[in-house]
Amino acid sequence: MRKWTRVGFQPNLPLEEKRRVTECKEHIRLSKEAAKEGMVLLKNEKKLLPLAEGTRLALFGKGSFDYVKGGGGSGDVAVSYVHNLYDGFKMQGNAVMLYEPLAEFYRENVQEQYRQGAMPGMTIEPELPKGLADGAKAFADVAIVVISRFSSEGWDRSSLDSQLSEMSREELEDNYMAKLIAKAFPEGDYFLTENEKAMLNMVKERFNRIAVVLNVGGIVDVSWIKNDDRISAALLGWQGGMEGGLAMAELLLGKGNPSGKLTDTFAASLDDYPSTENFHESCDYVNYTEDIYVGYRYFETIPGAKEKVIYPFGYGLSYTDFRVHTDSVWETSKHIFAEVHVTNTGNMAGKEVVQLYFNGPQGLLGNPALRLAAFEKTRLLQPGETQVVYLSFEKADMASYDDLGKIQKSAYILEKGIYRFYIGISVRDTEEAAYTFELTENIIVKQLSAHLVPTSLKERMLSDGTFEMLPQYECNDMNECAFEKLKTEEEDCIVPEVRWCSRRKWFDNCGRKQFIDVAEGKLSLDEFMAQLSDKELLHLLGGQPNTGVANTFGLGNLPEYGVPSVMTADGPAGLRLNIGCTVNTTAWPCATLLACTWNPALVWQVGKAGAKEVKENNLAVWLTPAVNIHRNPMCGRNFEYYSEDPLIAGKMGAAMVKGIQSQHIAASVKHFTANNKETNRKNSDSRVSERALREIYLKGFEIIVKEAQPWTIMSSYNAVNGHRTSESYELLTDILRGEWGFQGMVTTDWWTCGEHYKEIKAGNDLKMATGYPERVKKAMEMGLLGRQELEQSARRVLELILKID
After folding, report:
1. What pLDDT was estimated at residue 13?
2. DSSP per residue, 367-426
3. Is residue 467 a part of any domain in this protein?
4. pTM higher than 0.90, yes or no?
5. 3-state DSSP helix/strand/coil percent for the chain, to nearest 5?
6. Per-residue pLDDT tens for 685-703?
7. Statement to judge: residues 129 and 250 lie in one domain
8. Are 192 and 87 within one domain?
9. Are 287 and 346 within one domain?
10. Where are the alpha helices (DSSP H) in 191-237?
11. How many structural domains are present in the chain?
12. Which of 194, 418, 443, 736 is 20 to 30 Å from the Cα of 114, by its Cα?
């Protein structure tokens, strides 16, 4: 097949012989298995689970039918069906018996709410009739309570947060989706509603054997599960894609063994997270005063914080037992290695995750008590079987960044002192290794330059819980423009103009050098670009109209030169197409669930399968993975992201990128960077120290770039320390390309408020969904931008297209 035949929409044929791969049986099966591997068993007292064959069940809660496969916005996809938990149990034949009158009550109630305009996860828990509850008691041996939650791109989750500003309230009032959530969860979707509490109390009054299933995309209050002896078991099912309900049912019945581990810390209260205090302080900015103490780094370090944890980072139960023994730990000149023996000592096959943490000296810089350095998931171990697991990481990975010059400014430093290592199955369930690593003097691991320094962040947290003052620098106007700024209504949602691209123009080159000759090695890219006018170069730097099944626009599209129009597609929970095309795709589990598998090889498979669906539908750039840090549970988009820990985010993101690009489909890693809040996301300033940026918010992206070399990265909407990320030369050129060696193309997020000419100067190559050539031309006439800068960005756009087959 000739190069670019698919992206040119000829032919629209199955990718594999005699069958389509989009939403095929193999992909659906992989989606289910991935869902099962990432679900986390939180509680299992008296070994209630797995359920015995023949158990009589009563399913309580509208969540038994109101199943949420994933979050909204770019993370949503069209599917041919979704299996809820009720479906999952019914598909098991006679393995269990369900109390059908109760099921019928919830089915009819949820369907009626849908008919009235409610969406999955936004329905209201109905009042449970006493007669149905009594009937369930007379019929069933076990009660299963199902709680579901929904969140989406474009708005943050709700809570009873007294800190919510009036500006935030006004924004929520203007947001249709947020209003639906507020109606369904007036107490905030982090907590149980009053109706859910009433239903739960009715269940506890009637049953001694109760299990809870959580169908959620992010952290919710689980204190009522942990602290209530009447609740025997709980499965954190996350949002498991189109087969999530079936995956839950199979795990509850022992058709598979839970092996998911938390990639976030579940605290007793929302207020226990240090970032909650200022999360809604302002629509205009967010102060990252907790600094590097995010997630378990905070809870395991700050005095008095440990007791606030309900379920710790890395935690997850199994139906079997494992013995984890560290055989040896040793070092080479650059690495630390560990050999660990894992034995299944129970009576059911299962997988375990071995986690290695280190504790460094506090020194002058101060450090978290523990940091994850390496992890490895075992294969499926049969009862009595042992696997030897090898862990390793670079010594340099233990370095801390000195942004204030306490030892050496703008350098990664291994401070002198003793480094201890802890190996186990969660951050709380570890044993200290006999081996220690000691330095008698400080070592400068890498000398860098100061970038993205804070301009308005006044203080940050230290390891003892106190705060230190930060130097203040001159703050710029992030909306500054050399000429009249675009008005908001002018820049938002302008679609690209349709460019004439007839087949005659495609083949009648009129003496123009053709792009295919570059692809075939007959012509250099420099020779090809030399013939392009400034106008044509500018055309390449803006988004192109949708074609085929696309709904997120494309790039390229110079038909007279043979440059194809390459379409993008949303992610990350599956291939998202134009809804009008009626093509259904595979809905994969949400990113948080995939992270909880702790299995990069499995995530690689998901990436590969998803990329095949992208290619089969004649698209070429998949806008995934999203790897922002779970800074606070209230971020409405956390379901798209992996973890509070940058190593998990980086390793899982790198695996996803490798899987996608193995099919010659471009992955677009997003949102670069510190995009940890959806409220006023296009104008909010993330005020964060350079150290926290380096060690937390940039680290996952850095891992992905160095391990997977993604073909594109997407800059975020927000500003960082007063500079829009899409306009930040320090972020996109100095750090991303200069320090990390990124070779790909940078695109903006769609309809960013950044000024196009400033984005080009910063190294942001493509403005999506549309460019502003007239404004860029005006900047060139004023001497603010030159042809060389246009060529530099256009080259990266064309190099990306050359990678597409």
Report:
1. 83
2. --S-EEEEEEE---BPTT-EEEEEEEEEGGGG-EEESS-SSSTTEEEE-SEEEEEEEESS
3. no
4. yes
5. 30, 20, 50
6. 999 999 999 999 999 999 9
7. yes
8. yes
9. no
10. 194-206, 223-226
11. 4
12. 194
